[in-house]
Amino acid sequence: MSLLATHNLSAYYGDFQALFGIDLTVEEGETIAIIGANGAGKTTFLRAVAGALASEPDMVEYDGQSIGQHTPHELVRLGIAMVPEGRRLFPSLTVEENLALGGYCGRPGPWSLKRVYDLFPVLLELRNLPAPSLSGGQQQMAAIGRALMCNPRLLLCDELSLGLAPVVIQNIYDCLGAITAEGTTVIIVEQDIRRAIEASSRFYCFQEGRIGLTAAKDGFDQEAITAAYFGL
Amino acid sequence: MMDWVNILVQGCLLGGLYGLFAIGLSLSFGIMRLVNIAHGDLIVLSAYVAMIVVEFTGLDPITGLLVILPTMFLFGYALQRGLLNFTLEGGLLPPLLVTFGISVIIQNGLLLSFGAYTHRLKLGAIETQSIVFPGDMSVGVFPLITFGVAVLSIGGLQLLFYKTALGRAFRAVSDDADTAELLGINKRHLFALAMAIAMAFTALAAVLFAIRTNFDPAAGPIRLILAFEAVIIGGLGNIWGTLIGGIVLGLAQAVGAALSPTWQILAGHLAFIVILIIRPSGLFPRTRD
Amino acid sequence: MSQVQIERGTRASRIFSMAAVIALLGLVALPWWGGPGDMRLAAEMAYYLALAMLWNLLAGYAGLVSVGQQAFIGLGAYAFFYLTSSLGVHVYGAMALAGPFAGLISIPVAFVVFRLRGHYFAIGTWVVAEIFALGASLIEELGAGSGMSLTPAIVRQVSSSRDGRETLEYWMSLGICTIIFAVVYIILRSRQGLALTAIRDSEPASGSLGVNVFRTKLFIYVATATCTGLVGSLIFLQKLRLSPEAGFSVNDWTVVVIFMVVVGGIGTIEGPIIGMLIYILLRELFADFGSLYLILMGVIAVAIMLKAPGGVWGLISERYNLHLFPISRRLMRDETAAARDKSEASDK
User: Fold this and answer.
1) What would the pLDDT profile of C42-66 be if each residue is shown by its tens digit?
2) Which helix (H) or strand (E) holds C91?
3) Is the dihedral of CA A43, B92, C57, C9 positive or negative?
4) Structure confidence by residue, pLDDT tens digits, C190-207
5) Which fold has domain C8-339?
6) C-alpha to C-alpha distance for C222 and C109, rounded to whole angstroms
7) pLDDT digits over B249-282, tens only?
């Protein structure tokens, strides 16, 4: 049984349909990537899985349970955590308070403040600073650490590279290994095709709310991706 | 000279009560961005609840708080979860008009049930006792207690907000409720809890106010205005600022009353307007919004 | 080429405007077919409708949710009483001055309360009204806390007979209501009206499109204050007695007015009319049960806000696609032109 499966998942913003019948599966322990241009529906898909966007109950199945109508906070308790696009740290909380908030629901697991500081040592030095005083890369680390504090089985990462320098992006992606080593299943959403495919074992390419292409890491040719990505 | 010191001390103590009035309003604004027009009427409703509790149990009002505070805590939770949570996503008008409706329902409901008579809670001799300080300045014991309660309340809230996991969650929800949801925080529950806490403090303020002054069903709106002025003077979202705002208001009223008794309330309003003109974001605005 | 034209009227609105003119004529003739009680009620309905339309313009269109309009009722009424009683100005002259006086005072008020946003603006306007009420109760020349009365001599300036006075005052109410209705309607159909809707929907966006947000808001605020002051002078000409509590009553002049607008349908022209009728109906039906009607009005307002924010009129117009007072511009494709296009296309 897959950890996550979506069945003909459709999603709407008011009258605007953003996803058209997405069928996607993720096995436990796997890291997959979702790539696609702006507006392809990648973030919408993550929001639907995380419960921030309601769908029909059976459209999203997690660990054998229909979760389409669950609220985000219920899903966190079931083990789905998200690193939101643009990091969204709480500005009036310190770095450590932001991290501690990830532990609010008290799910047991390998991650603790200490483990997060081991993974991102720079955060230990900055822990008493207000979150907005951090650099973009440091904020991204704090946002990942905060999500890890939920001790997720399924971690959703939305555009980790957004607005960061290449060397910083490399640092952050280097840490993903330590996260998957704990058996955590990861879905990465990225616009940066190369980065996303390197970090994952399989990928889906979204185009205008549909899956344009899916392939294993080594089983694709560049032209097919370009075609699916840009809809050429 | 001594007269003026006396006036300032009395005004400062009165400001403690206003600060207490304002805590509930400040909390509901700070956490759910909800400006509760019914706040003044909820103070008066709490006073009536206290009156009923005192009549039925025969307790004095202070001991009665053991019943009154939990009652209003639950009421606050139910009010937010059952009604006000549904007003928070449609812009400015829904919360304003729904709380406005609640205000009218409470006022007229109390009027129909209890009539327009004035009531007061009795606490015995302590109401009129006072301590005489050197220089012949006498300070009422009860206003002093009220002021102490205000300082302790705000100190307690400060600890709650900055030293507990729940307080952290409150601050997170206040910053960004949707992201907080993604971290396992149920914002509906948390908002309801915030209103429950706000109502418990409102009830505390109401009991102290009802021992000190007469109340009737129409006494709410002016309390809303006083609480509102304290919150704005102090600066939005700053809990100590709310107490300072209350004190500024109390001082202005005391000075006004010393000039002429009819000037008391007006002097408070004028102080509010002056501060609004010279410092629109209050004396101690939160650095970030 | 397809012909597109812009229309505001609808068939329903044209039929309705005929009916409205007939109804208005019927109301003008009320003194001949109704009793004094009917006239008093109709006059009250007229001035409540005027207040509801003004508040709707302010809150529903300009986004200025004021809870302090009683300030301008009181100011207009006090100006009227002071001018007639102390300065000996004729009743009509005093009424003509009462509105502009309230409008003049509203300018500095606007500069203070416009510093507050949203809900804070609401309570801020209320504080200002309280200040005026307390101020009036301190001024000896205005009768301080006990207020003022109009002397028989002043009242007789309207008409020497009681019947004549009631008829004239009724016509004045009807006339002022009609004028205010027209003013609101004209403002909404003008460029200002379009700017207003833009501001309500997004202040920063409309600002960037060249709408002078502050000036438009100020214009609406001062215009409604002026009209509200005029209505205030009229109301208290009929009541004959004025006190700070009565003149600056938040319940009488703002709360019930807000309920009318919300229940009827905020941000629509039809809403205030329906809301006013519902309010008067509830009040007359439950006249024997004290303030029960206010509780009912509160419950209805809360339910409307939660379940049907467009109000009763919103429900009706959605159900039947009705627009009786067309203020929005609707793009119409000319049917005959469309048919011609089609035949031209088939000719090819």
Assistant:
1) 999 999 999 999 999 998 888 888 9
2) helix C91-113
3) positive
4) 777 777 777 777 777 777
5) ABC transporter involved in vitamin B12 uptake, BtuC (1.10.3470)
6) 10
7) 999 999 999 988 888 999 999 999 888 888 877 7
Residue A46 touches partner B, C-beta closer than 8 Å: no
Chain C residues with CB inside 8 Å of B35's CB?
118-120, 122-123
Chain B: residue whose CA lies nearest to A80: B182
Chains A and B touch (3+ CB pairs under 8 A): yes
CATH of the domain at A98: 3.40.50.300
**Contact predicate C157/C249, CB 8 Å:** no
Question: Is the CB of B108 less than 8 angstroms away from the CB of C292?
Answer: yes
Residue in C131, C295, C299 closest to B266 by CB: C131
Phi, psi of A210 (to 5 degrees): -125, 165
How many domains does one find in chain A?
1
Q: Which residues does chain B have within 8 Å of residue C306's beta carbon, measured at their own beta carbons? A: 83, 86-87, 94, 98
What gap in Å lies between CA C118 and CA C133, rounded to an integer?
23
Tallying the residues shown for chain B, one arrives at: 289
CA angle at B18 for the pair C65 and B113, rounded to the nearest 5°: 70
Question: Is B200 within a domain?
Answer: yes
pTM of the model: 0.88
Say whether the B–C interface has 3 or more Cβ pairs within 8 Å.
Answer: yes
3-state secondary structure chain A: CCCEEEEEEEEEECCEEEEEEEEEEECCCCEEEEEECCCCCHHHHHHHHHCCCCCCHHHEEECCEECCCCCHHHHHHHCEEEECCCCCCCCCCEHHHHHHHHCCCCCCCCCCHHHHHHHCHHHHHCCCCEHHHCCHHHHHHHHHHHHHCCCCCEEEEECCCCCCCHHHHHHHHHHHHHHHCCCCEEEEEECCHHHHHHHCCEEEEEECCEEEEEEECCCCCHHHHHHHHHCC
ipTM: 0.89
- pLDDT tens digits, one per residue of B224-237: 999 999 998 988 77
The answer to whether B235 touches B241, Cβ cutoff 8 Å, is: yes
| Structural domain count, chain B | 1
**Gap between the Cα atoms of B255 and B179, Å rounded:** 47
Partner-chain contact C119 B102, CB within 8 Å? no
Q: Chain C contact for B285, CB < 8 A?
A: no
Q: DSSP E strands: which ranges in chain C? A: 4-7, 148-149, 241-242, 330-333
Q: Return the number of CB contacts < 8 Å for A and B.
A: 68
Amino acid found at A2: S
Domain-by-domain residue ranges, chain C?
8-339
pLDDT tens sequence across C270-323:
899 999 999 999 999 998 888 898 899 899 999 998 888 888 988 888 777 766
- Residues C216, C192: contact at Cβ < 8 Å? yes
Is A86 an 8 Å CB contact of chain B?
A: no
Residue B245 within a domain: no
- The pLDDT, as a whole number, for residue C93 is 93
CA nearest neighbour of A85 among A13, A161, A22: A161
Chain position carrying tokens 């309009």? C69
List the beta bridge partners of residue A157.
Answer: A83, A188
Partners of residue B77 on adjacent β-strands: none
**Structural domain boundaries, residue B43:** 13-115+141-218
C28/chain B closest Cα distance in angstroms: 35
